[in-house]
Design a protein that fits this description.
By secondary structure, this protein is α/β, with parallel strands linked by helices. The chain has helices spanning 2-13, 16-25, 40-52, 69-89, 108-124, 139-150, 167-174, 199-215, 227-239, 257-265, 281-290, 292-303; strands at 56-61, 93-97, 129-131, 156-161, 181-184, 220-223, 247-252, 270-276. It has an 8-stranded parallel barrel, surrounded by 7 helices. Helix 4 packs parallel to helix 5 (108-124), helix 7 (167-174) packs parallel to helix 8 (199-215) and helix 11 crosses helix 12. The longest helix is centred in the N-terminal third of the chain and has 21 residues, at 69-89. The radius of gyration is 18 Å and the shape is globular.
Length: 304
């Protein structure tokens, strides 16, 4: 049943008609738990709340599918406006983005042009930009662009997904540029030709690449809600005497609030990934696909 539900929500997340319908109804039926709002102002207030109890944030203006240069440029403008709003409000947040929303599928040059505009703005305000990793077909070009941008900017990093077979080698390659990486298990549906099909193998690879990246002396954003993984990483960090300024724990906005606050109380750096915007449906469907418990939360809100 879980596999059926996961496939259904992943398919819905890619449906343009379902996305269009969702925009009509707004952030109802539980989506507001995982999405901070549709406007920059709502997102900034959500970050302010996180900051007040010791958590950092990374804001993501949602949007993955653009079909014209005009749409890509508009998406880049929203990223710049987000960085400007962070600076003006004084909240503690950096920026996450998806390069498909900046025109990657239209033209690499267009995407690079938009990335440079965003990174110039972030540099002006002393901020950092994280390039989210998308599905497998975008993996290599994402890493190619990161290498190119790192020749010009030191305020940009990306994400490595542990469910891909290639990730261990990617960690080795990225050590050459001392990349700041968010390390995740992975949320897209991929073929067993490129990704581990079994959860245990993903978990094992996840812990392996985190340890490898930390031992290389690079910054690691350990992005997980898995308490067993977090506890193992805490023990590893303690045993290896890894400095507290070399890592942080990251979790999604609205998920495991109790664990986030407990880690802050223990003295760890914790950052919440805070998405916002009108194009929230695909993100919301992936959260439901990832964790069946989220579905019951939504159903309870629906019947209320």
């Amino acid at each position: 049943m879980e596999a059926i539900m996961r496939n259904m929500f992943q398919a819905l997340g890619k449906s343009h008609s379902a996305n269009k319908m969702a925009k009509r109804f707004g952030l109802r039926f539980g989506a507001a738990r995982f999405v901070a709002g549709e406007s920059i102002q709502q997102a900034i207030e959500a970050v302010r709340g996180l900051n007040s109890d010791g958590r950092l944030a990374t804001l993501d203006h949602l949007g993955e599918f653009v079909f014209s240069e005009e749409e890509a440029n508009e998406s880049a403008e929203m990223c710049i406006k987000t960085l400007e709003a962070i600076a003006a409000s004084g909240v503690n947040s950096n920026l996450s983005l998806k390069m498909t929303s900046l025109g990657l599928d239209i033209s690499k040059d267009l995407c690079l042009q938009n990335m440079r505009r965003i990174l110039d703005c972030a540099k002006k305000h002393g901020n950092f930009v994280r390039i989210d990793m998308e599905d497998y077909e975008h993996c290599q070009i994402t890493l190619d662009i990161l290498h190119e941008l790192r020749d010009e900017y030191d305020n940009v990093g990306t994400v490595i997904q542990a469910y891909l077979y290639r990730s261990e080698q990617d960690i080795r390659d990225l050590n050459g540029i001392h990349a700041n990486l968010r390390l995740v298990k992975g949320a897209y549906k991929e073929s067993p030709k490129v990704a581990f099909p079994e959860k245990k193998d993903v978990d094992d690879n996840y812990k392996k690449i985190i340890k490898q990246h930390l031992l290389n002396g690079n910054y690691a954003a350990i992005a997980s809600h898995d308490e067993a993984v977090i506890n193992e990483m805490k023990a590893f960090i303690r045993d290896m005497k890894i400095s507290g300024d070399q890592f942080e724990f990251q979790m999604l906005y609205g998920i495991r609030e109790d664990l986030q606050k407990r880690l802050v109380a223990e003295g760890y750096r914790v950052r919440a990934y805070v998405p916002y915007g009108i194009d929230w449906f695909g993100y919301f469907m992936r959260r439901l696909a990832e964790r069946p418990a989220n579905v019951w939360f939504v159903l309870k809100n629906f019947f209320k």
